[in-house]
Amino acid sequence: MKNYDFIIVGSGFAGSIMAERFANVLNKKVLIIEQRDHIAGNMFDYYDEAGVLIHKYGPHLFRTNEDFVWDYMSQFTEWHPYQHKVVAEIDTHLVPVPFNLTSLEVLMPEKASEIKEILLSEFGMDKKVPVSVLRKHQNPMISELGSFIFEKIYLNYTTKQWGEKPENLDFETITARVPVHVSYDDRYFQEKYQFLPKEGYTQMFKKMLSNPNIEVRLSVKANEVLNLDTDSNKIFFKGEEFTGTVIYSGAIDEMLGYAFGELPYRSLRFEVETHDKEYFQPTGTVNYPNDHDYTRISEYKHMMAQKPSKTSVMVEYPQEYKRLVPGQDIPYYPIPKDENTIAYDKYRSIADKFSNLYLIGRLAEYKYYDMNNIIMHALKTFNEEFANKN
């Protein structure tokens, strides 16, 4: 066995950032194990036959307010500026999401002026307010608005996305990502830096992993080469004890042989369609909360600088996760329920007994991370746990 200092499971943001730091800052030998046949995890993108750059696992939009995140990622790519806008089909209208003052005026024209005045008085302009706050507000007009937004924007979308009604989930966590925006700003995000990698995410990841200290092995399942011996709390790689450090970003229940049962996830199915027209829809993404089996349609031509003559769209269908069923075997989202967190904690308590094992990432931590947050989390983990200790 080669003398690796680190073995990293997964080549998405968590794994690739840690590998890049170990190789370039600490000059350590790193092996990345990736079960897919490509790097970059869910960020993988490719050009389709129409010449459109497709994000294979759904649209990913880079944004951050953190200068250190922006500076770090800018080492590996040039950028294409892009401000994402989303509209939702509500009662035959297309209105901005997150719900904002424009949405209010389109959907509730008779009451819009009065409600707007109350919102500005209560919260102020350019403020973001969780829908739960609106629904519980003592002013009946605000609480009615909250209920309207909940029923039109959140209720059916949440049920489709998660396969359960909002009251069965940690709804506060879900809705916190898309609060009501007391503003006319139609952008989906308001961060200072909003860009896409000019040559795509895959090329950016190739540059991140270009150090010769990094070896990447594709199409390798971690549990076929790594063994976490819970009797000795030692890690074995291909039958030999590995005394270096393992960074694990995969599903922890899989790594520990489903000892406490499977952790539940939601999966997604994507259908890509090419249309012989300039554009298919008015914005990068259109949400369909109340009709159709799909939740949204994304049009990548809106997002990138390249403008081929045809356009390609991606239709997104939420579905049940089944690890043994092809097409349903990719775990995208941990399901936010208290009972699932309790089940995860059992796995975490076992993993924490391994002194040379670090869990990082959405699957390993059973926690939803936006792209900017996982970048920040990986960089901080490196700085706090490794930068000054090697």
TrEMBL record:
Its cofactor is FAD. Keywords: FAD, Flavoprotein, Isomerase. InterPro entries: UDP-GALP_mutase, UDP-GalPyranose_mutase_C. Residues 152-368 form the UDP-galactopyranose mutase C-terminal domain. Pfam families: GLF, NAD_binding_8. Coiled coil: none annotated. Signal peptide: none annotated. Belongs to the UDP-galactopyranose/dTDP-fucopyranose mutase family. PANTHER family: UDP-GALACTOPYRANOSE MUTASE. This is UDP-galactopyranose mutase. It comes from Nibribacter koreensis.
